[in-house]
Amino acid sequence: MMNEMPPEHMNPSGAEGGRKLSRQERLVNKVRLHLAMTVREIFEEVEKDELRPKAMAYFDDIFRKFMHNGEGVIKAAEDQKVIGTYCVFVPEEIVYAAGGYPVRLCAGAHDTSEIGEDFLPDVACPMVKSEMGFASMPILDFYQRCDMVALPASCHWKLKMGEMLEPFDDVHMLDVPRVKESEKARDYWLEEVKRFQKRVEKITGRKIRRKALRDAIRRIQRAQREVVRFQELRKHNPAPILGRDALEVLNAYFYDEVNDWTDALATLNDELEERIAQGIHVAPPRAARIMLTGSPMVFPNWKVPFVIEDLGGILVCDEFCTSQRYLSDMVSVDEGTMGDMLMAIAERYVLPCACPTFSNTIERRDRIARLVDEYQVEGVIYHVLKGCHPFDIELKIIEKLLQEKGVPMLKIETDYSPEDVEQLRTRIEAFQETLKGRN
Amino acid sequence: MNVQRIRLVVQFISFVVLIYGGLFAIDLGNRLPTFACSYVPDHGGGCFLVGFQHMLSRPLPEFLGEQGIRLLKALGIAALWAIVINKAWCGWICPIGLLQDLLTRLRTWLSIDMSRFSWVARKRYKSVKYILLALLVLIPLGIGNGLISRDWTAPYCQLCPARPLLPLFRGDTTQFAINFFSLPTMALTGGAIVLVGLMFTTSFVKRRFLCSYCPMLAFLSLFDKVGLFSLKKDGSKCTRCGNCYRACPMEIREIEEEKGLKNLVTQDCILCLRCVEACPENRALEAQFAGFSFLKADAEAFLARQEAATGGKAAATKRRKK
Minimal Cα–Cα distance from B236 to chain A, Å? Predict the structure, then answer.
């Protein structure tokens, strides 16, 4: 397809319109070109899969746009305010209720993570580096489109990233309490959410009314309901959809308008239901059922799921903050007053959250144990991004839990560079062999 | 299934039976452990505290004879009621509970936010109802043995907000008054009017404010362990999202904190079952009667209720039609 070729002007070497490009512009062009190539490679690989659900095309379109400066990835109207978000703590309900458009900026591109090294030490996790790269350079247009960026102080990298972002964005820090159970922590977090609300209202110029907030909650609940259905379908053995496709679907939520995304997922779910009824599956019934946990994976950093499924395993679920953790817990409206809804929103984002930046690990342990049982997981791959300390710290605890449950675990430590793919392949292959031996 | 709607219907029926039952020849006896006020003309059932206080107002030696047996019989019947229905008396039957719940509905309809006690304050006030329960025994005994003036007779009836309030539903306003006979009667009956006032005002701030101090709740809580209704929690299924605590009108934090398998009918629980309904995790919470599970936390039911709570059903179908 012609339109998938990177545009001509992205020539990294040269001049444009007779004018000599600055070093910065050349770098931008180079990164854009590399990103476009990475994306194209991914979709070339994906297209080889003949059993892929047709409804995936909708989600592919979103990511294909990464080849063209990301234009059209987000659907914010011309005059609509765009609020960039990081992590899983920024209440999108509030953004929608105020008439804004939320877009999650957590990034997975290798080339921009190299730019990020201008701001951060080498040992920093590639995700924050990549985010800094995108924020500081005009590579994808929606990073430049943000009227405000909400950054939760989750891990230490994110905590310090706020100041680094300031030259490029209007940054709003959200202070997430680390020891979240106490009364004061809850009150404080509720105040943080209200402060965020005031800030968003100021930016969009629209005061949030009760009905608008209720509607926003409903929109997101509807999306989450579809996710529940999707995850139920993924439990089916043999699997009706590849894990890498599922990651793509959930990753697309970052950028897409919530109602459109929900409709697209509903279409996909209908298709998957049909497939199950017809007995169509993407992996043989005896394929090793793998679960991913640890540091999140964001497009286009999909090397690990690709390796797992190329080797004949099937990724049945994950516990990432980019998918499962992001979308599984729901706001629970009780009395429906403004205060009740705000409290429900605040609590939904923090109390059940299994992010390792919180002091306790009980939520994450329980959740992993449940996922292992519900999805009949045979092996767990624990993914640590180099420099991602919170997940590294919890590794031993999760390892012990899985040992007790008799589920083998493989730790892989990697970053966004494609260099170690072959090495990963060898290790994951050996791991999946041992899983086969067990049956 | 919307349990809260069913509960409201049951509360209404109970209210009608207890207040107007006598008109239809219903008599549930005068040993009910709930605020079914005996001062209501033609009531269908009466609170056991009236008789209990009078029976206790005797010289101590009398309890060794027939009086003791009468007292034990009265207590036994009340205890039996308490074991069979335990806290459901509070959440499903008590007329004062219904009135408070209705005022809460009015508050949410007016979209006035609720507030909660701080955790410390709540803990501190928890003992008040037990102190009241102890006094409920001690004051009548004091009267019977000449230590306390007769003006204190049946002090809890004099102080109870149900006495001035509930007869009003039969058009009887005589109880809605302060008895100026003596200082104690003035204080007690005046207190009752104050409590009625408090009930109406606090209901616009807090849920079930009076219940936290109710000596009847303290009495019923003595049977928490043996009561036939129980509330079970499977901690391994819990994500500690806090929905249950937020939904709980009695602000019971144990419901969210508990991680093990446990019966969670705690001292303040009124078995309204809002927590079970607010729980999004399959079978994390379960309400049982005599070991038979009649309501389980259910993800799908949770979703359906949320859809209703956010006004989604109509909107969802409208969307589909488009």
Answer: 6
